[in-house]
Structure to design on (164 residues):
């Protein structure tokens, strides 16, 4: 027996739809239907909307020469913002999973050339964002717990390791 797969079941597609709906009707309350992904969808949707300025700052900081957000398609921008939110605030999700899920979800909304562009932008951003996050958090952990300045090799401080 072949099971029919609902291609609209991806939580990231719903996130994109919720954010788009909110931007088109800002006065309407966002309704989250009962689903196994309800908490995830609500977290990412509300987090993206609440931290829109921080996400935009991050994108501009890392990709100032690669993207002009004022001229970017609204749907591409929504997908990019929600993916960047996940990269910054959802550390349990590997960056490759975030990228592949949003690229798959974007197939419903974007043209093939835009999908390729999104993939390249997310790949570049993910490397920069996760590297920056790890470096900053290691430094904070070392300072908070007064850990020894040098690692067990006695050569470099932990927070100055280069993350590949």
């Amino acid at each position: 027996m072949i099971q029919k797969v609902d291609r609209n079941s991806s939580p990231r597609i719903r996130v994109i739809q919720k954010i788009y709906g909110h931007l088109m009707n800002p006065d309407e309350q966002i309704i989250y239907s009962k689903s196994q992904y309800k908490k995830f969808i609500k977290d990412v949707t509300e987090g993206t909307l609440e931290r829109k300025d921080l996400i935009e700052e991050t994108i501009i900081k890392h990709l100032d020469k690669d993207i002009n957000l004022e001229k970017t398609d609204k749907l591409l921008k929504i997908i990019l913002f929600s993916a960047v939110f996940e990269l910054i605030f959802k550390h349990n999700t590997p960056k490759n999973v975030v990228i592949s899920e949003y690229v798959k979800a974007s197939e419903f909304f974007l043209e093939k050339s835009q999908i390729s562009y999104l993939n390249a932008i997310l790949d570049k951003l993910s490397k920069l964002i996760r590297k920056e996050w790890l470096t900053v958090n290691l430094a904070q952990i070392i300072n908070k717990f007064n850990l020894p300045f040098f690692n067990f090799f006695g050569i470099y401080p932990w927070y100055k390791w280069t993350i590949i």
